[in-house]
Amino acid sequence: MMIHLTRRERFNAAHRLFNEDWDDKKNFECFGKCANPNWHGHNYELFVTVKGNVNPQLGFVVNLKRLSKIIKEKVIEKLDHKNLNLEVDFLQGKVVSTENIAIGIWEQLEPAVKNIGIELHCVKVVETENNFVEYFGS
Ligand code: NI
Fold it and tell me: Is the pTM of this model over 0.85?
């Protein structure tokens, strides 16, 4: 019985949209106020969806505490209350867009989730109440 299971976590972080190959003028043209050199912040929400079979003895796909611990260790501790452009190893050299944050989170989580016998299905990152992205690993 294949079930999808989603855990929500949250992190608050600062960033700017900025391509280091471009000058300030071009960055402002492309990214507008999101390129503000003095940063701005978001209260991000992260939804991690995994899939697997229901364990007949336990009645669940995975122990949610175990999944939450993985998400916190691999992702939240690296992102929460951080400057995403300056302080996050897996975002270095990238434009810190919601898209690239989602892809980066996927890459952090995928091996660890596989390690506990389930499959990562979707990483959803909500930047504002109107904007979110979903990444399914390809
Ligand atoms: Ni932003």
Answer: yes
